Amino acid sequence: MSTFNVPTKDQVSENNQAIFNQLEKGLGFVPNLYATLAHSDNALSNFLTFANSKTSLSNKEKEAINLAVSEVNRCVYCLSAHTAISKMNGFNDSEILELRTGKADFNSKLNALARLAQNVAINRGKVDNDVLDNFFNEGYTKENLADAINVIGEITITNYFHNTTKIPVDFPVTQPLELQTV
User: Fold this and answer.
1) Do 182 and 103 contact (CB within 8 A), yes or no?
2) Which of 69, 127, 159, 171 could in theory staple to 75 by disulfide, Cβ–Cβ 3.0 to 4.6 A?
3) What is the pTM of this model?
4) Assigned CATH for 59-165
């Protein structure tokens, strides 16, 4: 089995070193997953451009998607990172656990979004009509759907990257639940 190292700043290109400096300023550290993307001269900057693009969704809505999809993909790194980020965005522990199951009984609109995210991830984009109808019935728009699919794609990239590389988790570790489908 191949092993992946987490490169240090002096082991990456000058462009990636500049990105590391920006991440250290903004986050206080360079997450291992981002550092590992820096094995490529382009992957880290391309990913961050995608991840930081404008969206019609709030940070809480993006985290609802990140939690539901990371659970489907059983990504320990992303579950751990997005549990911490979700807490910073105002979710409590029980809400985070519920979002990971693709539900949000505490908020009907977030429930529709979490169900959609989980359903898209499980069915590889072939969303169930009732799930999509519920999403729109809760007030989401076609713009929101396009942005939600982008967030699903973004988190899927990091889920797959970590599940492939198995680099160390540098957040408080959160283990996957038993997957419950909608």
Assistant:
1) yes
2) 159
3) 0.94
4) 1.20.1290.10
